[in-house]
Design goal:
Layout lengths: L2 E2 L32 H6 L5 H9 L6 H15 L9 H14 L6 H11 L5 E2 L4 H4 L1 H13 L6 H9 L5 H10 L1 H8 L7 H14 L3 H9 L2 H6 L10 H16 L2 H8 L2 H17 L3 H18 L11 H10 L19 H17 L6 H6 L2 H6 L15 H18 L4 H6 L2 H13 L21 H15 L4 H9 L2 H13 L7 H19 L3 H19 L12 H16 L3 H9 L2 H10 L3 H14 L5 H7 L8 H16 L20 H30 L1 H7 L3 H20 L7 E7 L2 E7 L29 E2 L2 E2 L7 E2 L9
Antiparallel strand pairs: 1-2, 3-4, 3-7, 5-6
């Protein structure tokens, strides 16, 4: 019982350009199933072996006519389609015909007729035929690619015409590697536009398959197609089909390898010219859509730092196109040009903002950004809507571009500090934030990626403005930060925070928490190491910190961002309160230490180190001890009990083992050591003994000249405090065992550095008791900075660690 396999032939001629959203494969046609005996006779195959034998004969009179006659009969016999079981023999006949074309041109028509039959659905007698004859089918289809070498335009077009029908043929093309031969055939068609377009059409259909895309990529299809984007083509099909193939290659094969193929001067010059032409002279819906597609492909390539974007002049042009609407230019490329508020032009504007963010990651681009006045162009959006001004964009479009521009500034402005300051960047952002907080009626559409959570309010504008400020503050550029402080930023940030917490908004809770986190991080960046700014932070600032610390601990597991806000809060305690005695005292009076210990008792490791570091610093304040001693947790737990519990938990996590007497039993119990290894271990022990003795000797020498040193310094009070801490450490080392693997952390004590030991406790049997140190005398687990960007930790200033100090007080 013969059936048609699902599929349909492509149209003989294709008019116009199909929209990208239309299907690249045709609607399959299902043939009629019949068991009629008469119909079966129609499909009865001829003796193919006889035809093959005849075509293999040579040097006989009238042989050519006889051969042509039999091939014509074969074509008539299979006019309803080629059976899968006969494909191998039929394609052998096709191959024999093609081999005769050079000397016997009349065989072109025979080959053409057989190839035309391939446009019909393949026929199968059994359901299993597709599997049984899969190899024959794949080899047969692959042969079509080889036939492209025959210098016949008619034959080449007919070969390409056949490839658009069934999914089974596509599958067999994958197995046979047809995509590779079709890519290679492109080199034969440099000046033959019609044939080239047909080949591109075949590759467009083949590239809907991941397997074929991988094959094409390995055959260098991406670079081969891209370099010919500007070839003359009145129909416009070449550019359309080429861009579609490049899209498919990027999506369905190795993106990195495709980008590598396109990251050369020749490809980028071609893309640049195409984009310029479409930008300046493309007015139809299709042209604008194609222009945007080319820009997206370019943006993907620009992510490769090795792509010569600057060298080919593409970067300069893209910056010009991105800013010509906002910054007037006399450049001929944009003279007289104007973007409409059409969807395609609106998408183009956002894509150009996006490509600037990508390009600025390449530092040599910075000068081009300066020349193009990018900061000034982006700042034209950082202002409240002007009702009287006629704008080209709709209200929703303008809002989305505004948010996109501010987000772009967060990436670009930190690279262009001078331009940011010359544009009065701080003043602009603070004024915009003032409007964000005002009661000025404003209907936000909140219908874009950047506008998420901002419908009907100004949260989105506030969110991105604060991100921009945070990015600038964390440059630690004193010019920027000083200017912010002089403009009242600290007071303004505290005011915004207080205003937000006075109007709870559960609907947009996640965004509100992000805004609060960023405000605290900005304040931390401004106040760190500046006593006067900490004083400005003052009691109002302490109040907002305490407000966050009183948050229900259960919310930390909500996933909304409370844990990020808590990190920011702890960071602000470190940077904005510690070191400012009035603020410290106020924090203590408001039971801040109790709140810290409550958080510590939650036993969440991600917070413990930071809280412990803050507690250590607070202990410099003589009023702290009373608060620590007065604290009681659940079940009347004391602070000392809590700290001991944390220590035991740490030991357990480290896997420290002890015997029944409490002695650590696995320092030396190391598996897999040879006799030579144990000798080396003994040497290490002795070396550590020597270093410990040397350290104590240096301390004794330092003590002899200590009083003289104090007499000569103007900071005697601070030095005496460091001296007392040092004496405590030495005294402890005389009565307790010093950790074998102890390291020394550098601790900041009111303007002076001193060295205090810390680390896990282990026992060294070979070291005299009088020379070894004991338990932790002091700890500095101080993360000096804990910035958070969009919920992710970004920058941590770690304390300096040295093996052993040469002097008690480093110079």
């Amino acid at each position: 019982m013969w059936t048609e396999e699902a599929g349909a032939t492509a149209e003989a001629q294709e008019s116009g350009i199909r929209n990208k959203s239309s299907s690249s494969s045709q609607i399959p046609v299902v043939g009629v199933v019949t068991e009629d005996d008469e119909a079966q006779d129609v499909f009865k195959p001829m003796d193919l072996n006889r035809v093959i034998k005849l075509l293999e004969e040579t040097d006989k009179d009238g042989l050519e006519e006889k051969q042509l006659k039999f091939v014509k009969k074969l074509v008539q016999c299979y006019q309803n389609g080629l059976p899968l079981r006969d494909l191998a023999q039929i394609f052998k006949i096709l191959n024999l015909c093609s081999g005769k074309i050079k000397n016997q041109p009349r065989f072109i028509e025979s080959a053409y007729d057989i190839i035309k039959l391939c446009g019909l659905p393949f026929l199968k007698k059994k359901v299993s035929d597709e599997i049984t004859y899969a190899e024959d089918t794949a080899n047969s289809i692959a042969l079509l690619g080889d036939l492209m070498k025959i210098p016949s335009s008619e034959l080449r077009i007919q070969i390409c015409y056949q490839q658009a029908s069934s999914s089974y043929k596509i599958q067999m093309a994958e197995v046979g590697g047809l995509a590779k031969t079709m890519v290679q055939s492109m080199t034969l068609l440099e000046n033959q536009l019609v044939e080239k377009l047909w080949v591109l059409k075949v590759l467009q259909h083949l590239s809907t398959s991941e397997v074929n895309c991988t094959i094409m990529m390995k055959a260098q299809a991406a670079s081969g197609i891209c370099t010919h984007l500007n070839d003359p083509d009145p129909s416009g099909q070449l550019l359309f089909r080429s861009s579609e193939i490049l899209w498919n290659l990027l999506e369905k094969s190795s993106k990195e390898e495709v980008i590598q193929q396109l990251s050369n001067l020749e490809c980028l010059l071609a893309l640049k010219e195409v984009f310029k032409n479409l930008f300046m002279r493309g007015f139809s819906h299709y042209d604008r859509q194609l222009r945007n597609d080319i820009l997206v492909i370019t943006t993907i390539i620009a992510q490769n730092p090795e792509a010569p974007m600057i060298e080919c002049g593409f970067t300069k042009d893209l910056i010009l196109f991105a800013t010509f609407n906002e910054v007037k230019s006399q450049n001929l490329l944009v003279k007289g040009l104007k973007l409409s508020n059409s969807y395609e032009d609106f998408e183009l504007k956002k894509l150009l903002f996006n490509v600037i963010v990508i390009l600025c990651k390449d530092l040599p681009t910075v000068q081009l950004l300066i020349d193009g006045k990018v900061i000034l162009a982006l700042f034209t959006y950082v202002k409240k809507p002007e009702k009287q001004k006629i704008i080209d964009w709709s209200a929703a479009q303008h809002e989305e571009l505004q948010l996109h521009a501010i987000a772009t500034l967060s990436s670009v402005a930190p690279l262009l500090i001078e331009e940011y300051m010359s544009c009065q960047g701080n003043a602009r952002v603070l004024a915009f934030l003032e409007w964000c907080e005002s009661e000025d009626p404003f209907f936000s559409h909140g219908n874009s990626f950047h506008g998420t959570g901002g419908r009907g309010n100004k949260f989105a504008q506030m969110r991105y403005s604060l991100r921009l400020l945070r990015a600038m503050v964390y440059l630690e550029d004193e010019t920027v930060n000083k200017d912010l402080c002089e403009k009242g930023t600290i007071q303004q940030m505290i005011g915004i925070f207080k205003n937000i917490i006075s109007k709870p908004n559960e609907k947009e809770e996640a965004i509100v928490l992000e805004i609060q986190s960023d405000i605290l991080l900005i304040l931390s960046g401004l106040c760190e190491n500046h006593i006067q700014r900490k004083e400005i932070f003052g009691t109002e600032g302490v109040d907002i910190v305490l407000h966050v610390m009183k948050t229900d601990p259960r919310k930390l597991q909500s996933g909304l961002g409370y844990n990020v806000l808590l990190f920011s809060t702890l960071d602000s305690i470190w940077c904005c309160i510690l070191g400012c005695y009035p603020s410290e005292d106020y924090f203590l009076e408001k039971e801040g230490i109790f709140l810290l210990l409550d958080l510590l008792a939650l036993n969440q490791k991600k917070f413990c180190n930071l809280i412990l570091g803050i507690m250590v610093e607070f202990c410099d304040n003589p009023k702290t001890a009373a608060h620590v001693n007065a604290w009681q947790g659940k079940k009347d737990q004391t602070a000392a009990s809590l700290l001991i519990k944390l220590w035991r938990k740490e030991e357990k996590e480290l896997g420290v083992k002890r015997d029944k007497n409490g002695k650590i039993i696995d320092f030396e119990n190391l598996p897999g050591l040879s006799a030579e290894d144990f000798v080396t271990l003994c040497i290490i022990h002795r070396y550590l003994d020597f270093k410990i003795q040397a350290t104590h000797k240096q301390r004794e020498l330092a003590n002899k000249s200590w009083e003289d040193f104090l007499a000569r310094t103007s900071n005697a009070k601070t030095l005496k405090k460091a001296k007392r801490l040092q004496e405590k450490a030495i005294e402890a080392s005389r009565y307790h065992k010093r950790p074998q693997n102890a390291i020394f952390h550098q601790t900041h004590i009111k303007g002076l550095n001193t060295m205090v030991p810390s680390g896990g406790v282990v026992t060294v049997e070979s070291t005299p008791a009088r020379l070894v140190g004991g338990p932790l005398v002091d700890t500095d687990i101080a993360l000096k900075k804990l910035p958070i960007r969009g919920g992710a930790l970004q920058r941590v200033k770690a304390v300096k660690i040295v093996d052993a100090p040469k002097k008690s007080i480093p110079t």
